[in-house]
Amino acid sequence: MPMYEYRCTACGETYEQLRRMSEADKDLACPHCGSQQVERQISACSIGGCGGGSAGGAGFS
Ligand SMILES: [Zn+2]
Questions:
Q1: CATH class assigned to 3-47
Q2: pTM of the predicted structure, to 2 decimals
Q3: How far does the centroid of ligand 1 lie from the alpha carbon of residue 53, in Å?
């Protein structure tokens, strides 16, 4: 399951979520303010550029 990055246009928060590809844009809601004004960001991970790197691993913090 790919990791997607979303940005809430209501409060400006960004967050990441693991989602099925078919549900990437489904039922979006900001975890901070609950707004559904959320847009998906283009993430390298979703295109398959994530993982397999030798420098630093996934780097989630
Ligand atoms: Zn928000």
A1: mainly beta
A2: 0.67
A3: 32
Q: Of 42, 50, 48, 35, which is closest to residue 6 (Cα–Cα)?
A: 42
**Distance linking the first and last C-alpha atoms of the chain:** 19
Indicate the DSSP class of residue 26.
Answer: S
- How does pLDDT run along the chain (61 residues), one tens digit per residue? 888 999 999 999 999 999 998 999 999 999 999 999 999 997 655 556 666 555 555 555 5
Neighbours of ion ligand 1 (CB under 5 A): 8, 10-11, 13, 30, 32-33, 35
